Amino acid sequence: MNQADVDGLVDIDATAEALAYLHVEQSGEGLAVGWKVTERPLREKRIQPNRLTDDTLFTARQIAAGHDEGMAVVTELRGAVVAMALAKFEPERGVVRLLEVRVDFEVRREGMGTALVYQVLQTARRSELRAVVAETRSDNVPGAEFLLKLGFKLAGVDTQRESNHDLVKEQATLVWYAAVD
């Protein structure tokens, strides 16, 4: 990705459609706490615009300019950016953090996202890091299924990322790991 590509990232239509969500249920307390994650249908199809955040755009600019250590990869089709993967290296933890994968709505299911994530996994392996870490929200079943397909494993649940009431709102952050060593 170069600086000119960064401006095209906002044009990627990453609209998310879902028919289900991942219900997160906590049991136990203290150190004996456990989580159960199950897929449940939504009452109606959910369509969310999934706009690129200012923080993600800033990080993409920093990585493309070489100010932050990471990788930003894009796929172009007919001169337009249609897919991207953004990852940040965290060598002190031995991981690459996959921050964003976006594929334009019109060209989904053509393998672009898979190819981009495989590049991130390969870079982590070549850099002798131990894993790639990703996060999804519990209301993003397509994102969770995508990571599962690529060999990621659910490694944790953060029920207070957005607020102290995430579970009440049936929203939690799911943490995924793909070992590369």
Task: Name a few traits of the molecule.
six-stranded mixed beta sheet, single chain, alpha+beta, Aminopeptidase, 8 strands, 4 helices, two-stranded antiparallel ribbon, 181 residues, 23% helix
Question: Could you please describe the fold and organization of this structure?
Answer:
It contains 4 helices and 8 strands. It has helices spanning 3-8, 54-65, 112-126, 141-149, and strands spanning 16-27, 34-48, 70-77, 80-90, 95-103, 131-137, 153-158, 173-179. The chain is α+β, with helices and mostly antiparallel strands and 181 residues long. It has one domain (3-179): 3-Layer(aba) Sandwich (Aminopeptidase). The mean pLDDT is 91. Helix content is 23%, strand content 41%. The strands form 2 sheets. It has a 6-stranded mixed β-sheet, sandwiched between helices. The protein has a two-stranded antiparallel ribbon with strand order 1-2.
